[in-house]
Amino acid sequence: MSPRTPRPPKVRPPDPDALDATWRLFLAVPLSAEVQALLANQIAELSALDWPVRWAQPDMAHLTIRFLGESDREHAELLRMALPSVVQAEQAFDLRTAALGVFPNFRHPRVLWLGLHGPAHRLERLVAQVDASVSELGFGARDEDYHPHITLGRARNQSSETVKLRDLPAAVKARFVNDSTGAAIAPPPVPVPVHEVQLMRSHLGKGGARYEVLSSFPLG
Questions:
Q1: Burial class for 213, CB neighbours closer than 10 Å (0-12, 13-18, 19+)
Q2: Which of 104, 129, 175, 194 has the fewest Cβ atoms within 10 angstroms?
Q3: What is the DSSP string of 145-207?
Q4: Distance CA 109, CA 199 (A)
Q5: pLDDT per residue of the chain (220 residues) written in tens, 0 to 9
């Protein structure tokens, strides 16, 4: 009788709450129930088209201010201490939802989003102040220009849906752009209050990302 092959030792997944665990962090403005309802309606209409897109969950959607990436718990605590005064120095204001769009362009629509209008200079000033503060804490400079938007979905590499990935650019452009005028199509606008910034932790799993609010910083 041949000897049994020993079983490999079980490898336990890393404990996300361990003291040395890294945290996936970002800063965002939470969205009101009215904005979430608008997103739910838009995503329901678009998902019925069977595009190869992974759609966002409306109740977890947000307006991203700055993605910070993997960090340790110590830096999360530094953010909690440094950001309240930075954010409070800016007065609260409202944006409003605008037209549908894509990144990087309609030839390669990787991210589908809902745009924003309103006092853009106030949002830009808030973002610039936050960027300066987090850079001083060791998070580095922003990799690319900031373009405010609310993500609706992201294109998938596999295309088992009715519309294949190669056909997605034409399908998205036909749905997002008025063919006769060339103008971007926009759902009825709703206000987007910018009254606080939240420090968020993203937990990645098989069922998708789950977000945890670590701290909230109100605007003035």
A1: exposed
A2: 104
A3: -----EEEEEE-S---SSS-GGGHHHHHHHHHB-TTT-PBP-PPP-EEEE-EEEEEEEEEETT
A4: 29
A5: 555 666 655 545 444 555 457 899 999 999 999 999 999 999 999 999 999 999 999 999 999 999 999 988 898 999 999 999 999 999 999 999 999 999 999 999 999 999 999 999 999 999 999 999 999 998 888 888 999 999 999 998 765 567 888 899 999 999 999 999 999 999 999 999 999 999 999 997 776 778 999 999 999 9
